[in-house]
UniProtKB/TrEMBL annotation, chain A:
Gene3D superfamilies: 3.40.50.2300. This is Response regulator. Keywords: Phosphoprotein. Residues 8-122 form the Response regulatory domain. Coiled coil: none annotated. Transmembrane segments: none annotated. PANTHER family: CHEMOTAXIS TWO-COMPONENT RESPONSE REGULATOR, STRESS RESPONSE REGULATOR PROTEIN 1. Pfam families: Response_reg. One of its GO terms (biological process) is phosphorelay signal transduction system. SUPFAM superfamilies: CheY-like.
């Protein structure tokens, strides 16, 4: 991984508002990202080295977030997966961790915590308000 | 010229002689009722008068022969009836000398004509041999009669129903009427038919003969008619004629007996009845008016048959457990006829311009009879409380008379509606009014109103409705409790987006060079998500709120989408695959949104629980909507659960029927009651491919045009 190149994050989230919110959050800290509304489309776009981290919802139409995580592990992927969900029940959490989730976060996600986990996942400086030349959009 | 009395009279005389022997010294006609009764049955005239000619007894055959009823004849002098006083004096002398006389006599009849009768008169003596009275047998002279009777006398061959009436109580009324007539305001009287009732109610019966009692006394009997108002007995037909005749006789103060005759419409008992009225000739009885009604009956059998059938009818009416009012609407018939003649076809429009016609109707249509149940319904005391204008019925339902008039004008045979009436003690009650109009061919114009008290029923219905609403609501609340997790998830989703977008905005703003455009965009998204969250909360609140069911035009598909809000989380959590084949352009249904959601959620929960019961690999719920082409839209839900045991199929919608360990078994019962209340139907079955299938159909809202 090139330390001078920003890591690319994938987001799988069926709720459009949440998907866009996460995408915008990553944009403000200058992390490029790709969004998917379901696991199947993400899997289709997946190629070795495409993404450096995956943020996924648990409840998804079709393949669920945990199933996706399981498949990735099954494929031998080492890509860190952060699970973000409204399911706060402990069973889902322990199952996710057992399968190998990098982190299990409950919505609404505190941005600071998400960024800490992202940072630890991709070992990239994603400190708040990082950088001056951030006005990349529009 | 004189014929011997026929066999029957011979027998009669023998009988009378025998009786006289048995009851020596007793005035048979004054005291021995049995003998009077025999003479009553004689087909020839039997008259008894004293030595001065005062009539003491006058049998029914005499009534038939001369027209004068016994009531009007007894107490009068026989010479009053003679049309040839000179002849009578000669005959009288002969009688006193010889003790008997027979020959023709000419007498005045009630109807103003003269009749020749062949009579045989015999003087009776008391025990001391002193002349006591005279008995006369007579019959109408036939062959060789040189004196004609009244031209239509044969109409009166049958005895009259006769009445003696006392008008002293209505003198004040008659005086007022007299004043009106003198002022030339007689037309006003015609517009106020109340005077007729007042007159007939105030005029008391002094005496009636048996025939009158038979004809109109009903089950009351002759003796109990005496002292009563004539209005209580006089048939409805001809009340007006009687009132007018009484008024005419009472207001006429010219000397001598003036008889007034009027023809009456046939009343079903008497054919071509003629009513005759005259004042009393006796001094000191100016308030007595005699009335006789003559008319032929077809035969005794039909007469009695008719009486009996009428009696049965009367009893039936009086004992029917339905409040009945008989009204006389005959005065409206000419009004309607005139309107039609004047080209009025749309009475509704006409009444818009002439609302006074409705008031007129309320005044001139009159209640003539009511039964016991009606008296009880209004908490009245006697049927007489009701006799009068029908207006009181519509006091609190002022639009009703108009609708009745429209129905009548359109020639309908009956009309019914639910209305309110005020009882005599001031209570408001709900009644179903049913009006039965007479057929055009019926000239009697008897309109029957029946009133069924439905106050209790409506109250019970309202209570049931209230219970149902509350029960349905309670079930919804309990259902919402079960979906707390699901609901939390639904609300959490937009809230999460808001939190993230808010924090992102802060980051943009805290930059050295804040990106205002980006913040604006994010703020717009925050607003949108907040709205979304608010909508969800609103929907949940709608489910939780207690509200009166309100039918609005709904798209069933949209209601399904809304219902899924509550169970989507549950479906996902249980890894159930949901497919929905919802038909496009589904016709609109008229329904209560929340109740319909409740039904759909209930059915979904049912399916989810059925699937969760066992661990099959196929976990599927198929929803579908379609138009069935018969004016209904159908919702169907099919699950991959174990299906419904056949023995439970019939009872699955019963309250408290459940196969689950938890739950009260009210879900499906409520679904059914909601769908039925919407005029739809619901059914359960097992799908050929396995699993249970529930379907409900709702009637489509008819499109305008």
């Amino acid at each position: 991984m090139d330390v001078f190149e920003a890591p690319v994050i994938a987001i799988v989230e069926d709720d459009e508002a949440m998907r866009e919110a996460l995408s915008d959050l990553l944009q403000v800290i200058d992390l490029p990202c790709h969004t998917f509304d379901r696991a199947e489309t993400f899997l289709a776009a997946l190629a070795p080295g495409t993404f450096d981290c995956l943020i996924t919802d648990v409840r998804l139409p079709g393949i669920s977030g945990l199933e996706l995580l399981q498949r990735l592990k099954g494929m031998g992927s080492t890509m860190p997966v952060i699970v973000v969900t409204s399911h706060s029940d402990p069973n889902t959490r322990s199952l996710a961790i057992a399968i190998g989730a990098h982190a299990f976060l409950t919505k609404p996600v505190a941005t600071e915590i998400l960024l800490q986990h992202l940072k630890s996942a991709v070992r990239h400086d994603v400190s708040p308000g990082g950088g001056d030349g951030g006005n990349t959009d529009d | 010229m004189f014929r011997l009395v026929a066999g029957m009279e011979e027998t009669l005389m023998t009988e009378m002689a025998w009786r006289r022997g048995a009851v020596e010294n007793i005035d048979i006609f004054a005291n021995a009722e049995a003998d009077t009764e025999l003479a009553d049955l004689a087909s020839d005239s039997v008259i008894v008068f004293d030595l001065t000619g005062n009539i003491r007894y006058w049998n029914p055959a005499s009534e038939r022969l001369y027209g004068w009823p016994a009531i009007g004849a007894i107490g009068r002098n026989l010479s009053d009836m003679s049309s040839n006083p000179a002849f009578q004096i000669a005959q009288w002398q002969s009688l006193r000398q010889e003790g008997r006389w027979e020959g023709p006599v000419e007498r005045r009849t009630l109807w103003g004509g003269r009749i020749t009768a062949s009579v045989r008169q015999t003087v009776r003596c008391n025990a001391d041999g002193e002349p006591r009275d005279i008995v006369e047998y007579g019959r109408g002279a036939t062959k060789g009669s040189h004196l004609s009777s009244a031209p239509n006398a044969d109409v009166h061959r049958f005895a009259a129903a006769s009445w003696a009436l006392d008008i002293s109580r209505v003198r004040p009324l008659l005086d007022r009427m007299g004043d009106l007539i003198n002022e030339g305001a007689a037309a006003e009287l015609a517009q106020q038919p109340d005077w007729m009732d007042e007159l007939l109610e105030g005029t008391r019966i002094v005496n009636v003969n048996e025939r009158a009692a038979h004809l109109v006394g009903g089950h009351v009997g002759r003796s109990r008619m005496i002292g009563q108002p004539v209005g209580a007995f006089w048939p409805r037909v001809g009340r007006g004629v009687l009132a007018e005749l009484i008024a005419a006789v009472a207001m006429d103060h010219s000397p001598g007996v003036i008889t007034r005759m009027r023809k009456l419409a046939s009343d079903g008992v008497l054919r071509d009845p003629v009513i005759t009225a005259w004042g009393s000739e006796e001094d000191g009885r100016p308030d007595i008016v005699f009335v006789a009604v003559n008319g032929a009956t077809d035969d005794d059998r039909s007469f009695w048959y008719l009486r009996a059938s009428e009696e049965r009818y009367r009893k039936l009416i009086h004992h029917l457990p339905v409040a009945l009012l008989q009204v006389d609407a005959s005065r409206m018939a000419p009004v309607f006829e005139e309107l039609r003649d004047n080209g009025v076809n749309d009475l509704n429009a006409y009444l818009d311009e002439h609302p006074e016609l409705v008031d007129f109707m309320k005044k001139v249509v009159r209640v003539t009879e009511v039964n016991q149940r009606a008296v009880a319904l209004f908490n009245g005391t006697v049927p007489a409380d009701f006799i009068g204008s029908v207006g009181f019925l519509y006091e609190v339902s002022p639009e009703t008379p108009r609708r009745i008039m429209l129905a009548r004008f359109e020639g309908r045979r009956n009309y019914t509606e639910i209305m309110k009436v005020r009882t005599f003690d001031g209570r408001l009650i709900d009644v179903r009014l049913s009006v039965t109009f007479p057929a055009p061919s019926e000239r009697l114009d008897v309109t029957l109103l029946s009133l069924e008290n439905i106050t209790e029923r409506l109250r019970t219905e309202r209570q049931l409705h209230q219970f149902e609403t509350e029960f349905t609501h309670a079930a919804r609340i309990s259902m919402l409790g079960e979906f707390a997790t699901s609901i939390a998830h639904e609300v959490n989703q937009p809230l999460s987006a808001i939190v993230t977008n808010g924090e992102t905005s802060l980051r943009w703003l805290s930059r050295d060079n804040p990106n205002i455009a980006k913040v604006e965009q994010l703020t717009a998204r925050i607003v949108s998500s907040a709205r979304h969250a608010s909508e969800i909360v609103q929907r949940i609140r709608g489910m939780a709120a207690k509200h009166e069911p309100a039918r609005i035009a709904l798209d069933l598909n949209q209601v399904i989408e809304e219902a899924l809000l509550f169970v989507r989380h549950d479906i996902d959590a249980k890894s159930i695959h949901l497919s929905a084949r919802l038909a496009c352009d589904l016709p609109i249904v008229l329904a209560d949104r929340v109740q319909l959601q409740q039904v759909i959620v209930n059915l979904l929960v049912n399916s989810i629980q059925a699937i969760a019961q066992e661990s099959r690999s196929v976990r599927q719920i198929d929803l579908a909507t379609y138009e069935d082409g018969e004016g209904a839209v159908t919702f169907s839900i099919h699950d991959s659960g174990p299906g419904i045991p056949v023995c439970n199929l019939d009872s699955i919608f019963d309250s408290f029927f459940t196969t689950k360990e938890t739950g009260m078994g009210i879900g499906l019962a409520i679904c059914q009651s909601i769908i039925l209340a919407h005029g739809g139907s619901i059914c359960a079955s097992n799908h050929p491919d396995g699993g249970a299938q529930f379907r409900f159909s709702l009637p489509v809202l008819p499109k305008p045009n």
